[in-house]
Design goal:
Distance between the termini: 37 Å
CATH topology of the largest domain: Ribosomal Protein S8, Chain: A, domain 1
Number of strands: 5
Structural class: alpha+beta
Helix content: 40-55%
CATH class of the largest domain: Alpha Beta
Largest sheet: 5 strands, mixed
Number of domains: 2
Length: about 240
């Protein structure tokens, strides 16, 4: 398996509240090991071709087999890095139950993870999913790679999605085929199994959307709503 070497964001671990960089260092270590194996793989395949051109079929075959072993080890290290950073970024209390953080993932990894999450959430009747894809500030040339991949996947699955014009690095996906409309800035998110009501703020959507006002204070969530959200998050952390 060949994975595009473009990860999301400048930091792979996005929820650290302290100066502890142990998670980031472990992630980088695994990616570096994968990169070293990739270099060894390429060197073996290059030498294999040279041996073949020189008429040494036995050496060419042996070098090719070595290259395949390095390729397999590269995939193993990348998988370890992907699993490791996903667990860290999506640990209980780090994201809401209707969110998935794709920071630190390569494009192909992000697609695979999101596809599996969409399938699982749809099967249990969930309506909405927020994919955290980043703003692209740290991507090469400022070009987002995960966001277009998520949009392509939504198109493939026939799902509607929406992004907010403030570019918070999130994509809202409607998992049940309905309209996807971002809540206004500062608006409290509804629970995982509720539909988002449409609102009057402009947004970017995978499909055109009708708009109507959303309930609640236009200047932000109510005090009761904030307290309920805080209690809900604390309960998740305890569990």
């Amino acid at each position: 398996m060949t994975i595009p070497m473009h990860r999301l964001g400048g930091r792979a671990f996005t929820h650290a509240d302290s100066d502890d960089d142990e998670t980031e260092r472990e992630y980088d270590r695994l990616r570096d090991l994968a990169g070293q194996e990739a270099q060894k793989r390429n060197a073996c395949f290059e030498r294999s071709q040279e041996a073949y051109k020189a008429g040494d079929g036995a050496a060419a075959k042996e070098l090719s087999n070595q290259g395949k072993r390095h390729a397999a080890q590269m995939d193993a290290y990348n998988q370890q890095a992907s699993d490791f950073i996903f667990r860290a970024n999506n640990a209980p209390g780090e994201v809401d139950e209707d969110e998935i953080d794709l920071h630190g993932q390569f494009v192909e990894e992000a697609e695979r993870i999101l596809r599996a999450r969409i399938r699982a959430d749809r099967n249990r009747g969930a309506t909405n999913l927020f994919a955290i894809v980043g703003k692209g500030n740290h991507s090469a040339n400022g070009v987002q790679r995960i966001k277009p991949a998520v949009e392509r996947l939504c198109g493939e699955l026939g799902l509607r999605y929406a992004t907010d014009e403030d570019n918070t690095g999130r994509i809202l996906i409607n998992l049940q085929g309905g309209e996807a409309v971002m809540p206004p800035p500062g608006q409290q998110k509804p629970h995982h199994h509720q539909n988002y009501q449409q609102h009057t703020q402009p947004h970017h959507s995978g499909y055109p959307a009708q708009q109507q006002p959303q309930q609640g204070d236009d200047h932000g969530p109510s005090l009761l709503g904030l307290l309920a959200r805080k209690l809900e998050k604390n309960c998740c952390i305890v569990m």
